[in-house]
Amino acid sequence: MADTAREWVLKAGEELRFEVDFRRTVSVRLRAGHAEYFGAELGPEATYEFSGENGAIFSWEGCTLAVAGECASAYVAGETPMVAYINVHMALQQQRRRQGAAPRVMVVGPADCGKTSLARLLLNYAARQGEAPLFVDLDPASASVTVPGTLSATAITKTVDIECGFMGHAASSSAGPPEAPLVWHFGHEDPAANPRLFCALVDRAAAAVDRRLAADARAGAAGIVVDTRGSSDAGRDPAVLHAIEALRINVLAVVGNERMYSALETQLAGRGIAVLRLPRSGGAVDRSPAFRQLLNAKVVRQYFYGTPRDEAASFSTVVNFDDIAVLRVGEDAVAPSSTLPLGEARRPAATTVVPVALDESLVHSILAVTDAPRPASDDDDATAAEKMAVDAPADALVGIQAIGFVSVTRVEMDRRRLIVVSPVAGRLQKHVLLHGDTKWMETA
Ligand SMILES: Nc1ncnc2c1ncn2[C@@H]1O[C@H](COP(=O)(O)OP(=O)(O)OP(=O)(O)O)[C@@H](O)[C@H]1O
User: Fold this and answer.
1) Is residue 301 part of a domain?
2) Mean pLDDT: which of 129-143, 370-384, 418-432 is highest?
3) Cβ 82 under 6 angstroms from ligand 1
4) Signal sequence span per UniProt (predicted)?
5) Where is average pLDDT lowest: 112-116, 169-173, 401-405, 409-413?
6) Is CB count within 10 Å lower at the N or C end of the chain?
7) Residue 342 pLDDT
8) Residue 61 assigned to a binding site
């Protein structure tokens, strides 16, 4: 495509599918008619920019779009699953109007089948009708709301930002505590890396969701929409099955896999869960590991530096080794049983809290900042992390909410300090940080 704007005319029920490289930016403008991006309406005068993105602009009535910039691919598709998707939305709206039956929807299916896109569409359609559902993101591989390696719950009170997705939503709502997303640090991209910890976090998220639905009448009536990590056999996936139970799911949308649908329908029969079979969109594309890596790097960059539309300042902060405890939940590094005090059982490794050595290996790590109280100081030589790991009951740290994240840019061993990037100015006020596998290398 040439750099000058190209006009695309969509007939009713068609969508423009496009892929934009990470090194390019494409801008889209609605010239005539109505169009939407995963359920969020395009404004008539606005220009939307996309970079490193695959997506589709759909029109129920037909529209004209002007697209400027170079797409890796762009084509108009007439066959879409949108009628099936809007039928689900209408059924959910009916359920919302019946007293005491707020929908608790979970979307499952294989990788790249369009689960997040469907969740976003259902949330957007609900928001456009004045509903305020919660979006529960249980996909730590491609966290939508904050950095990868996390689970989160976000109140969707307006349609999700067309350019920045849920990240834009979280950024614009972070001013008001009731709207700020609740985030739990898992530290891995795959629930199977530590299934017990993952399930413990889902339990915490479920309890927080229940509290939120009880406290906020609008959210209580609108219910929840849960996104999950791609699973080739959700019926046997312990993370999925646990989440269905913990979040008391009553609508399960199975996208793009007949066998998975029929297995789940049989398995969940008689449990009051409506299991829906939904087609995969022909536009949902398989993303390579390299593409996902770039996508996650973009998400982390947005966390620290804001979105292109809403740039934020980030701050380089010095953190002294003696002021912090960096801990990891769930490690094999437990002492052999023979070294435990007599009569004391070994704690299961999955939720054991262990101190992390403060050394160069921390460079590029993303650390979750928590609200855990500082370990009491005494006069022995133990580091804060060691005291914390020994003193704090694991329960206090497993499932604690992340109140933010910092990225380690440098470790100065001689001066016993870390240099971190933080979206918040000033000294780090909180001192217990959680470490996981999430890394990010800042590039210019
Ligand atoms: N109709 C469509 N046209 C073009 N692109 C689409 C369409 N639907 C989804 N996509 C894109 O396809 C990719 C995969 O979709 P999505 O992220 O929704 O899948 P997913 O099942 O949630 O993936 P996973 O759980 O494996 O991360 C995304 O880049 C998304 O924007």
Assistant:
1) no
2) 129-143
3) no
4) none
5) 169-173
6) C
7) 58
8) no
Ligand 1 pocket test, pick from 20, 54, 237, 291 with the greatest ligand atom count within 8 Å of Cβ, gives 54
Structure tokens at 1: 């495509």
Structural domain of 382? 313-336+348-439
Contact 362, 408 (CB under 8 A): yes
- In tens, the pLDDT along 14-50 reads 999 999 999 999 999 999 999 999 999 999 989 999 9
Residue 111: CB within 6 Å of ligand 1? yes
* Entry pTM: 0.91
Work out the burial of residue 66: count CB atoms within 10 Å of its CB; fewer than 13 is exposed, 13-18 middle, 19 or more buried.
Answer: middle
Percent of the chain with pLDDT over 70: 87
Is residue 121 located within the same domain as residue 160? yes
Does residue 108 lie within any of the structural domains? Answer: yes
**Domain co-membership, 129 together with 267:** yes
In terms of domains, do 282 and 136 share one?
yes
Is the CB of residue 115 below 6 angstroms from any atom belonging to ligand 1? yes
CB 375 near ligand 1, within 6 Å:
no
Does 381 reside within a domain?
yes
133 and 46, same structural domain?
A: no
**Residue 54: both structure tokens together:** 């695959």
d(CA 217, CA 95): 15
| 117 annotated as belonging to a binding site for a ligand | yes
Q: What is the largest CA-CA distance in the chain?
A: 77
Tokens linked to 132:
């305020």
